[in-house]
Amino acid sequence: MKMNRLDSFRWRHAGCAWMGAAALVLFADAASAQSESFPMMDKVAERVVAQYQNSSCQQIMAKKMTPPSPQQMQMEQKAVQLLRTDPAMRQHFINRVSAPIANKMFECGMIP
Q1: Is 112 helix (H, G, I), strand (E, B) or coil?
Q2: pLDDT value at position 45?
Q3: Are the C-beta atoms of 22 and 83 separated by less than 8 Å?
Q4: I need a surface site. Which of 50, 66, 98, 112 has the fewest CB within 10 A?
Q5: pLDDT per residue over 39-89, tens digit each?
Q6: Is the C-alpha dihedral spanning 102, 103, 109, 111 positive or negative?
Q7: Which residues fall within 8 angstroms of residue 48, CB to CB, at 6 or more apart?
């Protein structure tokens, strides 16, 4: 199945909304994250999930269609790098946010 330009854009930027919010909190207290427990990551995950659950489909689509600012892009890149360097933190974060985000995207018709 061939993806149109809009679908391609959606998939490339599926994580932009939550990564921007996550980046600020991640770097505020990245040093306090323990190998088995991630209290700050739990707070970030709660914010990300709340952002999706409290937004309408139209709001989510509008945010995804807006390119991130250079500052947001830089914070997102730093957050991704942090999550790449700590597999346990990455797994914890993704496990917390993936189901609520995927469900909202499904409800909004953003994924089949």
Answers
A1: coil
A2: 86
A3: no
A4: 112
A5: 877 888 898 899 999 999 999 999 889 998 999 899 888 888 888 999 999
A6: positive
A7: 18, 21, 22, 97, 101
Residue pair 44/18 in contact by the 8 Å Cβ criterion: no
Residues near 92 by beta carbon (within 8 Å), at least 6 away in sequence: 38, 41
Percent of the chain's residues with pLDDT above 70: 68
Count the neighbouring beta carbons within 10 Å of the beta carbon of residue 49.
18
Residue type present at position 19: M
How far apart (Å, rounded) are the C-alpha atoms in residues 94 and 45? 8
DSSP assignment of 69-102:
PHHHHHHHHHHHHHHHH-HHHHHHHHHHHHHHHH
Chain-centroid distance, C-alpha 65 = 15
Closest CA to 41 of 15, 85, 79, 81: 79
DSSP 110: S
Q: Using the structure block, give the residue that is written with the tokens 């599926």.
A: 14
